[in-house]
Amino acid sequence: PIHIIDGIPHVTCSDLKKNLPLNCSLIDVRTPEEYTGELGNISNSQLVTLGQELVDFLQDADRKQDIIFICRSGARSAQATAYAMKEGFESVANLKGGMLEWAKT
């Protein structure tokens, strides 16, 4: 289930874990060092760093595709979710609590 917090759709780590593999894209917006670092990454996720790389990626992406954005704590991925919504993406969500929460569940 999707939860709306401050106008941004969120999905919880426990809900995502229960429903993997999903028919959606998992986009991790952290840096390459974070992606391969201590917290690791979610299998099948794709690294697209927040900033110009994400802007370029979304330019060519299908706006009807389901996307869940991931980062360390949920802050950068919330920015990415808001940006994607502004760009006309219809089915996007932020992973609430990010990889810090993922590691706990």
pLDDT average, as an integer?
Answer: 93
Distance between the termini: 17 Å
Strand arrangement, major sheet: 1-2-6-5-3-4
Shape: globular
Assembly level: single chain
Short description:
37% of the residues lie in helices and 23% in strands. By secondary structure, the chain is an alpha/beta fold. 32% of the residues are buried.
Structure, explained:
The chain is of the alpha/beta class and 105 residues long. The chain is 37% helix and 23% strand. The protein is built from five helices and six strands. The chain has a six-stranded mixed sheet with strand order 1-2-6-5-3-4. β1 and β2 (8-11) form a beta hairpin. It starts with a strand and ends with a helix.
Secondary structure elements and pairings:
Blueprint: E1 3-5, E2 8-11, H1 13-19, E3 25-28, H2 32-35, E4 45-47, H3 52-60, E5 66-70, H4 75-86, E6 91-95, H5 98-104
Parallel strand pairs: 2-6, 3-4, 3-5, 5-6
Antiparallel strand pairs: 1-2
Attribute tags:
37% helix, 5 helices, globular, six-stranded mixed beta sheet, 105 residues, single chain, alpha/beta, 23% strand
